[in-house]
Amino acid sequence: MRQLLRRLNFFFRRGRFERDLEEELRYHVDRLAEEQADQGASRRQFGSVARVREESRRMWTTTVGEQLAQDIRYGVRALAANPLFTAMAILSLALGIGANTAIYSFLDGILLRDLPVARPAELVVLNWRAADHPKVIHRLSGSQYRDGKHGVASPNYPYAFYQDLQKAQNSLSALFAYAPAWELNIVTRYRADVAEGELVSGGFFRGLGVVPAAGRLILDEDDRPGAPPVAVLSYKYWRSRYPAGVDAVGQSIRINHVPVTVVGVAPPGFFGVNPSTSPAVYLPLRAAPVFSPKPADDEQSKFVARDSYWVEMMGRLSPGVSLEQAQVELAGRFQQYVKSTISSPKEKENLPALWLQRGAGGLDSLRRQYSEPLYILMAMVGLILALACANIANLLLARATARRREMAIRLSLGASRGRVIGQLLTESVMLSLAGAALGLLVALWGIRSITWLLSNGQEDFTLHASLSWPVLAFAFALALATGVLFGLAPALRATGVDLTSGLKETKAGSSGRQARHFGLGQALLTAQVAVSLVLVVAAGLFVRTLSNLHSVDLGFNRENILIFYMNARQSGYEGPALAKVYGDLLDRFARVPGVRGASLSKSPLAIGSWNSTEVTIPGAPPVEGRRDTCVEPVDASFLATLQIPMLGGRDFDQHDMQSPRVAIVSEEFVKKFFPKENPLGRRIGIGGNKTADIEIVGISRTTRYNSIKETETPPVVYVPYTGDLDDLGRSGVFFELRTAGDPFLALNTVRQIVRQQDASIAISYTNTLAAQIDLTIGKERTFAQLCTCFAVLALIIACVGLYGTISYTVARRTSEIGIRMALGAERRRILWMVLREMFSIAGVGLAIGLGAAWGATRFVESFLFGLKHNDPAVLAFSVVVLAGAALAAGYAPARRASRVDPMAALRHE
Amino acid sequence: METRPDIPSGTLYMLILKTLARRGALHGYGITQHIRQSSNDVLQVDEGSLYPALQRMLIRGWVRDEWKISENNRRARYYSLTPEGRKQLAREVRQFDHVMSAISRVIQEV
Lengths: 909, 110
Prior knowledge:
Structural class of chain A: alpha+beta
Distance between the termini of chain B: 30 Å
Strand order of the largest sheet of chain B: 1-3-2
Distance between the termini of chain A: 43 Å
Largest sheet of chain A: 8 strands, mixed
Radius of gyration of chain B: 15 Å
Oligomer: heterodimer
Shape of chain B: globular
Number of strands of chain B: 3
Number of strands of chain A: 27
Helix content of chain A: 40-55%
Helix content of chain B: 55-70%
Largest interface: A-B, 27 and 23 residues
């Protein structure tokens, strides 16, 4: 050890060493010269100065640098002698390392990244939890999600509680509130468009510790009733919507038809507190009623109603206060608040309880959405890395066994044991290094493709991962450890051999020691086959899920339809004017060349929207599910444009749009509510306890309503869109244009028409209906694609392992096979003998894998559609695929064995 | 002087170590001088072996080096024994005695 340190010291102070040696030798020569007057004689006596210098230097260097160089040279030669194995080992390692790094980089991006704000670790998010939806909450707008064992959870609070907390001295040094402003119609001097906005309290930016890129951010004086409306633009929105060099600060823009002054621009990279959104504009919270399409009184009441939950809150812990202390204090205050709002004994049960969450990473909606699929993918790539490592282990084991003779020769020729082990380790490390280098490329490519897959072509996809170096380092360390461990163990054993027996041992080598080596290799192979089967089964399940989804009959024709969203209410149209502007636009769209039909509806079908209400049916007994009837406001040509067949009665006509007390109901609706009667001509009411004044005039075929995946299609009622224009003003509408060819060809004309109608109206969410529906099964598609990739990867890796091991066995047994053949064994028997070994490995692996797949696929059941997790067809198919792959991998070496020339094999000894 | 015998292989380290043990710190030239004189000009250390050997002994930690002013007022590299070197010397001498007595027994038998 000390020798090594001294050598290292030499290495770093080479220059000094050279000078010292030079001076020392000169001194010696001079002394000799002094001693003997004759200069020439002394030179001769000394010999070559250069040679002495060289020799002295080599004392230091040979054992470090040159030995390593020699090992590497030898290693390259040894690896190059087996190009197929080397390539496959490196490739499987690269794929394993790369896939893991890519997936973990995403997890890192989603689960671990901090918000780009000051001291994110101090931030906390205020949530509440309850066993079930609490009755004391009369209105909740925002999100409420199932929180595993705790029941339901939500981040929404009454504004009054936010004010209470703000007034009180508490364990938070800053507290701020925010709420989504949803889609806003924004008209700048340059263009009109629809973008997401965020309502924020005056303390929002200050609390987060964010510095503006230009102007100022929203302050307390902006966040009070009656303050002049101001807005802060996101950096991205400013850069993309304003010409370069134009200052947005001080300019006036119109948001939802209200003039607003831009006071500042948020810093680049700032996206608010939710990593899954990126608001284009931030508005003061108290200005919400100004921008809302709802009646202003209704909106104002949200600020005083003590039972309406809608604002979200974050805070910053005061110095020295722990999360637990803050939780105790805030939960107490919330409990008091909630108790003060109880209005009936029934509401006393199941009160919501405040629950503080760390907020360094922002809100966790993104995590909830993606973490489950990512964990599944993570498990899969973990298995792949295990496969790759098993392959390396197998390869090294097989090589070590085959090289026992070589080791024995080298040892007997005087190589030190350390030297031989060092040589073997060098090879392992070289394999790992090469695998890691290639793995880096795979990871970079993988991150790009997974981003592309997850985003599904969404333009404003916010989830971006960057290469996680710690993960890459970890995967590499794992691969290196495998290489060293499985390279070292056989190396130690091989170098510990008794030389004579090692030399005597022939290639046929049937000694007990080898059988034991091979036992470990066999176990590894069996495990590989089992793991591969699990991955192939998973891929099979997801592929079948995808094909089931694609073959679902939607009940309408999704091809060649252009859809886009619009809300003219945000440009100032109300009531009859709103109906008229939509009607005018529909007329003009229908006349566009190439457009065969134009219609509008509150939302297109099967893209994930849900619009349910209660229907009143006079005289009918209450039926389960009546609350879940879906109401879809449409125009007269909707059913015709989507090609939904009528089963009875008549379709809507223009007259119905003028006097909208009519409805068309779906087949499902009839089945549920009029199982024995003719519904035509009957009257129903829409909404709870409404007078039944809407006449059913037609029956349409059932279609998928909410999504392709819905297992139960809800009853649907189509009504004229002119019936409730206030509601339509709040939600906006989607237009559907059926075209003759590529739907996007009509888009330019559509934009022109809208601009001519009113330049302040913006359209958004332009897409084809088919593509939009595909987005709803994006997760399934991504899964199917990634899993198929992983399964193919696993198959390749397992086959490489099988092929490699069987090949080695055959090579080692060449002379044994030769003897057998010389003694009269048939080629077919030899072929079978080798294949039998392979099948016994594969058979055990398949049996174990089948059991594992049966259990493991339970976890992905929620991602499947139209089949069970233990679908027999998928299981059978996977077994056949794997057995086939194993046969393919084992056949080549088996055939080679059967072609052994007995004479050549025997002479080989 | 023409047919000077080579130093028996394996004994060079021992000779250097012994020289340093007896004379304290010495430079390379001094070592060759001392070995020559104390062997009555029989043993002549070849510089081509001396300096590599000294380097190797530095690596092994048997000697340490130090730059000092020599007897003729020049800078010279002085080598001196380390405790490790002293132990090594004892080991080599013991082994040498062992081998020598064996050899002389063989020779005397004849």
